[in-house]
Design goal:
The structure holds two protein chains of two kinds. By secondary structure, chain A is of the alpha/beta class. Chain A has helices at residues 14-25, 62-65, 68-78, 88-95, 152-160, 210-220, and strands at residues 3-7, 30-33, 45-48, 83-86, 102-104, 112-120, 136-143, 147-149, 164-168, 179-183, 189-192. Chain A has a single domain (3-220), classed as Class I glutamine amidotransferase (GATase) domain (Rossmann fold, 3-Layer(aba) Sandwich). In chain A, the strands form two sheets. A nine-stranded mixed β-sheet of chain A has the order 2-1-3-4-11-10-9-6-7, sandwiched between helices. In chain A, strands 5-8 form a two-stranded antiparallel ribbon. Chain B has two helices and three strands; from the N terminus they run βαβαβ. The chains are: A alpha/beta, B alpha+beta.
Chain lengths: 221, 79
């Protein structure tokens, strides 16, 4: 698998994500700076890391979503290349219009940084095929703006089309219908607030995030 | 010329920050506040002749997230 990890000014999970991808796929991803206009030839997986791109100026993910590399990402996503956005990466994907809805300030106004319970709602996607439907896993979150909101019609559509990938099992940030991660209509773009790259090896205390990368590798390879 | 863009949350969109401000006002003893909604004010210094359409385009493409926010443009008389 030929992966690319985007790097924006203020990204801070890019190296963790690169380590996770290399551990699982056996190949280090290309680190692609936001000013680039193109992805490396043959990129077959794009990962957008967590962090605080552009200091969360204007809105989380707003500036990054308009950076030159995101035009190439939109084009690749349209061709069916898998795109995974984690935390700030999820915010970037919604701001770029690649996923519906918006991530607003946590309902409790506090930054939430702890492992949370997640229910795998859809185990049929390229990102979740290594999980069992309905399985409960634990993955850490670390965010201030993770409160997923969309209009009722959009939420109903996400649910009826099986595009809710993960749901929180308890109250975390006020997200509509406890949504923690969603997939686009085409099935190749996943945005999620929890950090699977932080639950990858036993030293992390939990390896529930590892299967996301393993499942994806199997789906892509 | 100058323009001001007011970005506000759409009616019905939950505003946790507005709620917190409301509670803080009540904590200070201001009892008559019914609701607080927080938004943004963005001031633009523009080339003369910039059209309203162009400013609205800036709002739709960057300044506001129209999924959750409305915007209002106000042109200012130049001093």
């Amino acid at each position: 698998m030929k992966s690319a990890v985007l790097v924006f000014p203020g990204s801070n999970c890019d190296r963790d994500l690169a380590v996770a991808i290399e551990q699982v796929t056996g190949r280090a991803p290309a680190m692609v700076w936001h000013r680039e206009a193109e992805l490396p030839d043959g990129t077959d997986f794009i990962a957008i890391p967590g962090g605080f791109s552009y200091g969360d100026y204007l809105r989380s993910g707003a500036m990054a979503a308009r950076s030159p590399i995101m035009r190439a990402v939109s084009e690749a996503a349209g061709r069916g290349v898998p795109v995974l956005g984690i935390c700030n990466g999820f915010q970037v994907l919604t701001e770029a219009g690649l996923l519906p809805g918006a991530l607003m300030r946590n309902a409790g106004l506090h930054f939430v940084c702890r492992p949370v319970g997640l229910k795998v709602e859809n185990s049929q996607s390229i990102f979740t095929s290594a999980y069992r439907a309905g399985e409960e896993i634990s993955i850490p979150v670390a965010h201030h703006d993770g409160n997923y909101q969309a209009d009722a019609e959009t939420l109903d559509r996400l649910e009826s089309e099986g595009r809710v990938a993960f749901r929180y099992t308890g109250e975390v940030n006020g997200s509509a219908r406890s949504i923690a991660g969603i997939i686009n209509a085409q099935g190749n773009v996943l945005g999620m607030m929890p950090h699977p790259e932080r639950a990858l090896e036993t030293a992390h205390g939990n390896t529930d995030g590892r299967r996301l990368f393993e499942g994806l590798l199997e789906a892509v390879a | 010329m100058k323009a001001r863009v007011f970005v506000t949350l759409k009616p019905g969109v939950l505003d946790p920050q507005g709620k917190a401000i409301h509670h803080a006002l009540e904590g200070l003893g201001f009892g008559g506040v019914q609701e607080v909604r927080a938004g943004k004010l963005i001031e633009l210094e523009l080339a003369d002749g910039t059209s309203d359409d162009e400013i609205a385009d800036m709002c739709r493409k960057l300044l506001a997230n129209t999924v959750i926010e409305n915007f209002k443009i106000e042109r200012m008389a130049t001093a």
